[in-house]
Amino acid sequence: MEEGINFVKAGLVKDGDKFVIDQVTFDKETGVGIVITEADTIKLVDDEFAKHKADIEEKKYDFQFNKILFGIKETCKWVDSKLLMKLIADKQVALLGEKPKSDGKREGKQNVK
User: Fold this and answer.
1) How far apart are CA 73 and CA 83, in angstroms?
2) Domains in the chain, number
3) Domain residues for 16?
4) Dist CA 92 CA 49 (whole Å)
5) Does residue 109 sit within a domain?
6) Nearest to 38 by CA among 90, 3, 74, 1
7) Are 51 and 72 found together in one domain?
8) What confidence tier does 106 reach under pLDDT thresholds 50, 70, 90?
9) Residue 61 and residue 14 in one domain
10) What's the pLDDT band for 9 if we cut at 50, 70, 90?
11) Which long-range CB contacts under 8 A does 52-56 form with residues at least 24 apart?
12) With bands split at pLDDT 50, 70 and 90, how would you rate the model's confidence at 107?
């Protein structure tokens, strides 16, 4: 829905009152008819993790896993974000184990008076 609204707004800004919706272009830009299965999403996650494997192994939980999320969304914007985030979190745990509660790196400084 949001993509449809953005498409229409962009067309109105560009062409004003002469803007006419081209159905084929509208469908393409808004994802009509695009189906991304869970299997497709799993493959996208596996491929993106493989791309960052060395960095993940080196940095462990300090790796910025949002790179994986944004990398996938950049190439496949119609993927289900909720499923994608769950699969990324599951893959993190499978590769690195449970996230440590505190590794001492992220603790804030205490105010000393």
Assistant:
1) 12
2) 2
3) 1-33
4) 9
5) no
6) 90
7) yes
8) low
9) no
10) confident
11) 56/95, 56/96
12) low
